[in-house]
């Protein structure tokens, strides 16, 4: 069985990020007791030309192993650090010094401050101030042109997602998401969105065709006169439309980024950077097969080379979830089978997948 998930840089999408052979990266989760070592993992990234990595916390052995490799890194700030980083600018300065400046030969590209924080949780009020303090620390270290500071969201923050043009956030989460999006606009930074076509399909098999969810060519649908070739584009554009509605209602009063003419930033309302996944687990129905995972991820490699219907000239930066099956990952059983490489032995790929 198999499933796939993706993290997409949305401000999740539209950014003028450079278009290289490593536009699709892979998330390196470590919730397993049978995983290959860090050095072996980095060797696999290099062997298969995976030029981008998402790491969920600053793991010193991995950071040391990345030194000098040129692999572009999205580094996560663990959720349990948010309170201190929000309340104490000095803590943010120390975090940047310990986890960024101590590794001068690592190619840091993004810092994800919190992952899928629920607006109803007690951590939600700390996300934006933690982002702001980390951002200031990055700027103080003169790395503002190199490293973007963002956070990742779940797409279930949307009240409506279809047709994509009508995408809108739930009113109940506006207090949380609006100031984050405004901050990202002013710093020209992409929002990160965790996009799971698999979950959308499983929740609505009546209205979503399997081929559409697998990103197969010639399986598209019309949505208010706009043709959508695949479910990934549709979800991504719905988040983009929801962000745009917020920004239209929030005119820019100033830009804290105005003094830097950065050529690598995103537009004002894009999403670029997504996490996407396809499981290879068991007992979850006909969707979860290794063959479907192969189809999905190979199609993903194709579609990220182009923009979405809303952003046709934008290229997408996406991270496949995940490098390995993680047998200690909490939650439903299928969430332990998203890996594209077998954890045992030397890390053999489950199916042919060409990063280019």
Automatic annotation (TrEMBL):
This is Glucan endo-1,3-beta-D-glucosidase. Keywords: Glycosidase, Hydrolase, Signal. The keyword Cell membrane does not apply. It comes from the Eukaryota. GO terms for molecular function: hydrolase activity, hydrolyzing O-glycosyl compounds. InterPro entries: GH, Glyco_hydro_17, Glyco_hydro_17_plant. Pfam families: Glyco_hydro_17. Residues 1-22 form the signal peptide. It comes from Perilla frutescens var. hirtella (Perilla citriodora). One of its GO terms (biological process) is carbohydrate metabolic process. The keyword Hydrolase applies. SUPFAM superfamilies: (Trans)glycosidases (SSF51445). PANTHER family: GLUCAN ENDO-1,3-BETA-GLUCOSIDASE BG1-RELATED-RELATED.
């Amino acid at each position: 069985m198999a499933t796939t998930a993706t993290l997409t840089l949305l401000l999740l999408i539209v950014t003028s990020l450079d278009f290289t052979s490593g536009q699709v990266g892979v998330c390196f989760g470590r919730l397993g007791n049978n995983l290959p070592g860090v050095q072996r993992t980095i060797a696999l990234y290099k062997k298969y030309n995976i030029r981008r990595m998402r790491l969920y916390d600053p793991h010193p052995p991995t950071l040391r192993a990345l030194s000098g490799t040129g692999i572009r890194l999205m580094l996560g700030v663990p959720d349990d650090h948010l309170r201190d980083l929000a309340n104490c600018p000095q803590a943010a300065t120390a975090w940047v010094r310990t986890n960024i400046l101590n590794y001068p030969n690592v190619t840091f590209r993004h810092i994800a401050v919190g992952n899928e924080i629920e607006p109803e949780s007690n951590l939600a009020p700390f996300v934006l101030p933690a982002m702001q303090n980390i951002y200031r620390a990055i700027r103080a270290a003169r790395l503002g042109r190199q490293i973007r500071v963002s956070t990742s969201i779940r797409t279930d923050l949307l009240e409506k997602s279809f047709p994509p043009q009508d995408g809108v956030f739930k009113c109940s989460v506006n207090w949380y998401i609006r100031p984050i999006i405004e901050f990202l606009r002013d710093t020209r930074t992409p929002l990160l969105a965790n996009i799971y076509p698999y979950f959308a399909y499983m929740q609505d098999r009546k209205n979503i065709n399997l081929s559409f969810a697998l990103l197969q060519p010639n399986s598209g649908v019309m949505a208010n006169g706009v043709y959508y070739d695949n479910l990934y584009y549709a979800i991504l554009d719905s988040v983009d439309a929801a962000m745009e509605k917020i920004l239209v209602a929030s005119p820019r009063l100033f830009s804290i980024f105005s003094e830097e003419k950065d050529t690598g930033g995103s537009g004002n309302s894009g999403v670029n950077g997504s996490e996407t996944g396809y499981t290879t687990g068991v007992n979850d129905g006909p969707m979860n097969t290794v063959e479907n995972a192969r189809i999905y991820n190979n199609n993903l490699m194709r579609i990220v080379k182009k923009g979405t219907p809303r952003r046709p000239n934008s290229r997408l930066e996406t991270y496949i979830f995940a490098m390995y099956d993680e047998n200690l990952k909490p939650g439903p059983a299928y969430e332990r089978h998203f890996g594209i490489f077998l954890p045992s032995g030397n890390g053999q790929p489950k199916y042919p997948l060409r990063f280019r």
